[in-house]
Amino acid sequence: MISVRDLQLDEQGRLRHFLTVEGLNSEWLHRIMDTAETFGSVRERQVKKVPLLRGKTVVNLFFETSTRTRTTFELAAKRLSADVLNINVAVSATAKGETLLDTIRNLEAMSVDMFVVRHAGSGAAHFIARHVAPHISVINAGDGRHAHPTQALLDMFTIRRHKPEFGPLKVAIVGDILHSRVARSQIHALKALGVTEVRVVAPRTLLPVAVESLGVKPFCDLDRGLEDVDVIIMLRLQKERMEGALLPSEREYYRCYGLTSKRLAKAKPDVLVMHPGPINRGVEISSAVADGRHSVILEQVGHGIAIRMAVMVLAMRSGQ
Amino acid sequence: MTKLSLLNGRLLDAGDGTSSTSDVFIAEGRVVALRQPPDGFVADQVFNVKGAVVSPGFIDLSVHLREPGFEHKATIASESNAAVKGGVTTLCCSPETAPPCDTPAVIELIREKAELAARSKVIPIGALTQGLQGESLSEMYALKGAGCQVVSNGMRAVANPLIWRRALEYAATYDLLVVVRPMDPWLAGSGTVHEGSVATRLGLPGIPPSAETVAVAQILALVEEIGTRVHFSCLSTCRAAAMIGAARRNGLPVSSDVAAHSLHLTEEAIEGFDPIAHVLPPFRTFADRDGLRQAVADGMIQAICSDHQPHEEDAKADVFAATEPGISGLETLLSLTLDLVDKGRLSLVRALTCLTSGPASVLGIETGRIVVGGVADLCVFDPRANWQVGEQTWISRGRNTPFWGETMRGKVLLTLVNGKVVYRDSDPR
Question: How much is the average pLDDT of A282-298?
Fold first, then answer.
């Protein structure tokens, strides 16, 4: 048994690495969002940069391909004036037989300051955090099915901008909960922020066992799951779920779990529709809803940069 | 041959659980007398073991020695040395070597190396299928000719129920014992941990309890038809223990064991993605752990094994699912078992039965008890002495134990194989 709290926060309670939302309290999450708020204006400037990470080297270490997350992390680091190195390990070192630990050691030897890690294995960011030199901070950009904490925070940031308080909210997360690191991080964040009711909606094949132990209410019926909710978070459905007998077809999934205007009417009139992207139109969401007045999907993307800037700054500060 | 006297030790009576202070006299590799020395007996070596328990040497049904093929992890010499330090005088070694133990040549190699090491006795388990591929039968007649009495496919999957049926039939032809580690490969899928709340939170693909119960049900149905002797090894669910126990009461020739660490740890051991707790079958719930303890106490489970799987450091230095499963367990087998006695879960007699006569009767071997005329495979231990798991005390090449750094109770003082001292605790009491 390894204590994650000791790994993520230092003795002074400062953020050493950002690996998971689990274990961070509401005060911490608001501090990150408040910091992100201060960066909101940077993108409106003529020169979109602040010098907070000048002279620092950030390595985007992606063991799994990603466009959106990698790009927003890269932009976030550049707007903080850091030097950025993008390493797509999926096609480089480990493909040549180098162990993960050796890859890390080699990059450490080049005096870098931060690793932003994306990996297909749950616990990858924890593993790297346990083994890196003490001056290096690790930011989890998604590990297996476990966590995607910056995505969850940008979602909370988006909700915070539209809803006066978290307490009374009812939130439904709809889709492939089983395989979703985003859902797990969102659940921890929503619970920490005191949200009254977090629902997860999916067919039984896409709900993990004992999901109630995360403090959520599972629903298999989308109409009932959407009743009276303030926020709907749709998850992306991966094509490979049709293999392995998890689902029969995209058509049937859309019929049962696709978010349409008709279904949206079950929710509160001022409901927010969110999606971490990239969206599958006609699979989990109709175009009318994705592009409709309740949708804040594109706004989420913009918030991603501010949140990532905030997390990088907070984690880098403790390392100094 | 040397003559030995063990004086003033505690001998337990398996019948009524009483212990009496007694002396044990050994000559020609056998126990020649208890209490009173035979006429004219002059010992070459005398051990005063006052206060310590004199037990039959332990018999461990599940050990990976890693040789041949994985000598970077451990060797027969290194691990049989660790075995006698743990009081184990006979161990069954897994066929999962490279090459797998599917030919008489590998059996002989293992036996020769074990004899050369001259520590614990080693019973090589032959492969159930060629190359452990789970597709075609191994040459069981040839394996038996080389002295092999037990076959198994270890942790490797057998392709389908028909191959299982054929393998059990063929093993029955030569009256071989088949050891099964029950885990349905389809239900286990890519899982590495117990499918439960911890796995759900950590996002680790899980192995459902049904992976074990479905495999047990399948084999039990086949044993009902065929009658092959089957031993289920390393159970992780109390449901499987109950199924096997019920089948046994109904007269099926089946038995089972559980690894000592599965009687202590639960799914929570993997918190923080701790690769040291990555083990197959996985640690399950508190209900399973307590149910397994009860099954051991009730006699539903006949043996406790170490499921010793030593690893080099690199095998555990990766992202959780990419690490190799297994725990180095030989040296903590006794202490973990005695801890259940301290906790009031087991009587001392029941605990020792599961380490001695229980596994002996599974294998049909004569050791595992102390009788006049019996082979002098003995273990003398102090149930109250403490020792620390660590650098100073550890012998196995594999340091992959979740108990590293912990203080444990129950220390082996002396181990005898065929009446010869093969381990003696150097720490003076």
Answer: 96
**Pair B139, B225 in one domain:** yes
Q: What pLDDT, on the 0 to 100 scale, is given for residue A11?
A: 85
Q: Which residues make beta-bridge pairs with B6?
A: B24, B47
Which of B195, B200, B320 comes nearest A123 by C-beta? B320
Q: Inspect the interface and report whether the beta carbons of A147 and B270 lie closer than 8 Å.
A: no
Position A51, amino acid: P
User: What digits encode the pLDDT tens for the residues B129-141?
Assistant: 999 999 999 999 9
Q: What is the CATH number of the domain that holds B175?
A: 3.20.20.140
Cα-based distances in Å from A294 to A162, A291, B352: 11, 8, 69
Start-to-end Cα distance in chain A: 29
pLDDT at A40: 78
User: Same domain for B179 and B35?
Assistant: no
- Pure H helices in chain A: 4-8, 26-39, 68-79, 100-108, 124-131, 149-162, 181-192, 222-226, 250-257, 261-264, 287-290, 297-319
Amino acid at A93: A
pLDDT for B429 beyond 50: no
pLDDT bracket for residue A93 (50, 70, 90): low
Nearest to A122 among B197, B271, B320 (CB): B320
Which ipTM value was assigned to this complex?
0.93
pLDDT in tens, B260-316: 999 999 999 999 999 999 999 999 999 999 999 999 999 999 999 999 999 999 999
Topology of domain A149-300, per CATH?
A: Rossmann fold (3.40.50)
Hey, are the CB atoms on B206 and A184 less than 8 Å from each other?
no
Residues B188 and B140 in one domain: yes
Is B270's Cβ below 8 Å from some Cβ in A? yes
CA dihedral of residues A111, A114, A120, A122 (deg, nearest 10):
110
Domain span(s) for CATH 3.40.50.1370 in chain A: 4-147+302-319, 149-300
Is A4-147+302-319 a CATH 3.40.50.1370 domain?
Answer: yes
Instruction: Mutation target for B interface from A6, A17, A127, A177: give the one with most B CBs within 10 A.
Output: A127
Label residue A2 by pLDDT band (50, 70, 90): confident
pLDDT tens sequence across A229-242: 999 999 999 877 77
Smallest CA-to-CA distance from B329 within B110, B74, B19 is with B74
Q: What is the pLDDT of residue A44?
A: 74
User: Among all chains, which residue has been given the structure tokens 């340091």?
Assistant: B399
C-beta separation of A229 from A196 below 8 A: no
Query: Are B29 and B117 in the same domain?
Result: no
Tell me how many domains chain B contains: 2
| pLDDT tens digits for range A29-62 | 999 999 999 987 777 777 778 999 999 999 999 9
* B122 within domain boundaries: yes
- Distance from C-alpha of B57 to C-alpha of B54, rounded to nearest angstrom: 9
Region at B297 (left for phi over 0; alpha for psi -120 to 50; beta for the rest): alpha
Question: CA B49 to CA A12: how far, in whole Å?
Answer: 54
Which residue numbers of B are catalytic? 307
> Mean pLDDT score of chain B, rounded to an integer?
96
- pTM score, two decimals? 0.95
B314 contacts A146? CB cut-off 8 A: no
Three-state secondary-structure class, residue B251: coil
Structure tokens at B181: 């580690």
Residues B45, B61, single domain; the answer is no
